[in-house]
TrEMBL record:
Record lineage: Bacteria, Pseudomonadati, Pseudomonadota, Gammaproteobacteria, Enterobacterales
The organism of origin for this protein: Serratia silvae
EC number: 2.7.1.35
The protein's name: pyridoxal kinase
PANTHER family, per the entry: PYRIDOXAL KINASE (PTHR10534), PYRIDOXINE_PYRIDOXAL_PYRIDOXAMINE KINASE (PTHR10534:SF15)
Pfam families reported in the protein's UniProt record: Phos_pyr_kin (PF08543)
Record flagged with keyword Nucleotide-binding: yes
Example of a GO MF term: hydroxymethylpyrimidine kinase activity
Pyridoxamine kinase/Phosphomethylpyrimidine kinase domain span: 85-268
CDD domains linked: pyridoxal_pyridoxamine_kinase
Keywords of the record: ATP-binding, Kinase, Nucleotide-binding, Transferase
Domain of life of the source: Bacteria
Keyword Transferase set for record: yes
Length: 279
């Protein structure tokens, strides 16, 4: 090595910041495996660390402390990792303090690496379960914090929380999503989008940009496994990073999630076992 040369961190495709479990297929437990399966280099930052997902009952573990969480993020700046990363995915957060920390950290990252893409899944809850995060976090998601993201992937219930009203038609869903196109935000992909599916046996998605709104549907898969939203977001971002257009990336990600769900249902798994259905 020549004198005066400086070693650099290797390039990283995605930094994924969300929940982490020892056992289970939610948060980083599925996003990390999915991104690796797509031949991407990935780093994980946990917002919480649980022995298993809470739907099995009260798990061991808890939220990562603010000191540790902010320290993890500072380390990525100090090691210049963020300067070599292509994208950041943010999902489930453990508390509102983590949201405040990210609101300060993300602009610094963008200043160091203007080409990096930020994707936020504002995880708050779902139909049938209601809000399962601190209500202060819901309020924080309604702030300009979300405008730091280039793309958002809320489900229909979360979009209703953001706009403050119930949604029942495609037009209402499009209008609510379009209202989020501020700041850096270029697109919203609403999963389980109200007013899009044709009946109870379908699931609808709605992609909204400044130029257009495009809907997608697929058959509902009878499988109890969780984490499909986390997996879908990871797949969508993987395809976008590989240069695919939305018109191809969204249907491909939908098809892949359905294939994995069918595989899990066929084997009677309680969690997504492995990702052999992904190419």
């Amino acid at each position: 090595m020549q004198q005066g040369s400086k070693l650099r961190p290797p390039p990283i495709d995605v930094i994924t910041i969300q929940s982490q479990v020892v056992y289970g297929s939610v948060g980083n437990g599925i996003a990390y495996r999915t991104l690796l399966k797509k031949n991407l280099e990935v780093l994980q930052v946990p917002s919480v660390l649980f022995g298993c997902p809470p739907y099995y009952g009260a798990p061991h573990g808890g939220a990562i402390s603010s000191e540790w969480f902010s320290g993890f993020l500072e380390d990525l700046i100090a090691r210049e990792v963020v300067c070599r990363a292509r994208a950041i995915i943010i999902g489930y957060l453990g508390d509102v303090a983590q949201c405040h920390i990210l609101a300060d950290w993300l602009p610094r990252v963008i200043a160091l690496n203007p080409g990096i893409k930020i994707y936020i899944d504002p995880v708050m809850g779902d139909y049938g379960e209601g809000v399962y995060v601190d209500k202060r976090l819901v309020e924080r998601y309604r702030s300009p914090y979300l405008n730091l993201a280039h793309g958002l992937t809320p489900n229909g219930f979360e979009l209703e929380q953001l706009c403050g009203m119930a949604l029942s038609t495609r037009e209402q869903t499009e209008q609510a999503a379009r209202a989020l196109l501020k700041g850096n935000t270029q697109w919203i992909l609403v999963t389980s989008a109200p007013g899009v599916a044709n009946g109870d046996k379908e699931v609808g998605l709605l992609l909204v940009t400044a130029e257009e709104a495009q809907s997608f549907t697929h058959a509902k898969i009878d499988s109890p496994v969780k984490g499909t939203g986390d997996m879908f977001t990871a797949l969508l971002i993987a395809h976008l990073l590989q240069g695919e257009s939305f018109s191809k990336a969204v249907p491909t990600a939908i098809h892949e999630v359905c294939a994995v769900l069918e595989d899990a249902a066929r084997h009677g798994w309680q969690e997504i076992g492995h990702l052999r259905a992904l190419k």
